[in-house]
Design a protein that fits this description.
The chain is α/β, with parallel strands linked by helices. 39% of the residues lie in helices and 15% in strands. The longest helix has 16 residues, at 358-373. The chain is elongated and about 70 Å long.
Length: 375
Amino acid sequence: MSAAVTPARSLTVVQLIPSMHAGGAERSALEVARALVQAGHRSVVISAGGRMVERLTAEGSEHIVLDIGRKSFSTLGRMFALRRELRRIQPDIVHARSRLPAWMGWWAMKGLSPKPHFVTTVHGLNSPSRYSAILLRGERIVAVSQTLRDYVLSHYRWLEPGRVRVIPRGIDPEAFPYGHRPDDAWTRAFFTEFPTLAGAPLLTLPGRGTRLKGHHDAIHLIADLKRRGIDARLLLLGAEEPGRETYAAELRDLIASLGLENQVVITPTRDDVRDIYATSALILQLSNKPESFGRTVVEALSLCRPVLGYAHGGVGELLAELYPAGRVPPGDRERLVERAAELLRVAPAIPMLQNYRLGDMQQATLALYDEVMAG
């Protein structure tokens, strides 16, 4: 989103989120913060911190370190610290992006005068409950996909449909340019670092170190391709995560048991995602539970790289609209390996994206803030 002129009235917006380490919600917070600053507003993020904080502050936002997302009784005591911060900042809008921070913000705002407007974003298909319902208490509720909007309206019958707005996450076409190819220096450095990934088509599954992301299915896919005589490599990008060492060890045990030590690599989150995607023959999205959105689907297709994913939730919604050839029924290993083999042989053409752009998401969010302020 390009820099905007200074508005007639400058807003102060506080975003509440557990951390700024990695993830779709965290990236959306960073992108909205950037748009606020560019539009002449004051942007504040309150979280426990993380690797994105440096960029957040470099782009003009403020960050306050306060652990408001840890599921512990000690977190409740931080509600008073949060109230002190909100009283000091005097925000016009508090935008909560996760359930526990939303509860913390909801209670912290009580007694504040003037009381900030309350906006929430539902990022995930959370189990319906009183605990989850806090994200539906915003004056406006952002749903990151039509799938998610339909989900919350079907499970919370008291929710007024007019309060729930679909604002999909967006990607920067300049950051993921159509047809991009990495330069020779990056390519040499990458395959020097990971020599076992060279010499065969690369499949990349991006995702945090959690069982929900489908790492096991991706590993079995490589084994199934191998049994069909198809040589391929797999990169589990981001599965090596602090605090989840036991899970990474479990994945390595599975890799060893299938004899795939020279075909599969696990890495932490990296900053050269664009070049990794562009080098990949296939991007995988194999979450075993429906997800609300699938940013990696959009990023890969923006680069003109084919995507293979399970046809449910937001990922299924995106694939149906943007790349139907990449859809397979959830959990169907036979169909998964068949479709992977087909796409590795000849992938259908990928048109240039005309929607799901970052600027669209940023502008829609700022327009929502203006709407809330207008009452």
